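Reading a protein record of the kind used here takes little practice once its layout is understood. Each number in the token line that follows is a code from a learned vocabulary of backbone shapes. One such record is shown here in full, so that the layout can be seen directly:
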Amino acid sequence: MFAIIQAAGWPIYFLLAVSIVAVALIIERFMILRQERIVPGDLLEKVLAAYQAQGVSEEMLDRLGQDSPLGQVLASGLRNYRSSREVMKDAIEETGRAVTHELERFLTTLGTIATISPLMGLFGTVVGMIEIFGSQTPSGSNPIELAHGISVALYNTGFGLVIAIPAMIFFRHFRGRVDGFVVEMEQQGARLVDVVHAERLEHQPSPGARQ
């Protein structure tokens, strides 16, 4: 491995640094973007059961907001359970945008790495070509310098692609995962609004009822 790095020349060190960052981001996003951590399957049912049994309390909202991103969305809706349907939905959507921004953390960096890695490999290729032309002398070419220039050009091009392809695959994968979580949180938030306002309507006295 060390021999390959030596043959690839100094441009390879930039690609090595980028590859380490890409691997770290991929591992971090795999650990964070898990279904049970972002959108627990039974959380909405537990929230509705607690709401129907004991109503809304500040302790319940604090505990729910610390549970998961879905919990933050549901807690923002329950904080406005006495308000109109539109106000409650707006609160859920506003929190949902903030949660989405947090879920997309580092994805832009990973996408940037996928985009610039081939360009960094191309930079190494240019450096190698410069060394190839620099090996030409009036008396002929220096075989050692010529071989080194070719190695720099090819290794950097290949290594740039080796970084870019997995980075783009994982970027697309994580982007799709986040989009799926956002849709699911929107659906569960809408269900919470429907249940809360349906119960409020059931408990409101009819217009013709005696006071």
The beta strands are 136-137, 140-141. Confidence is low (pLDDT under 50) at residues 206-211. Residues 37 and 194 are 25 Å apart (CA to CA). The chain is about 80% helix and 0% strand.
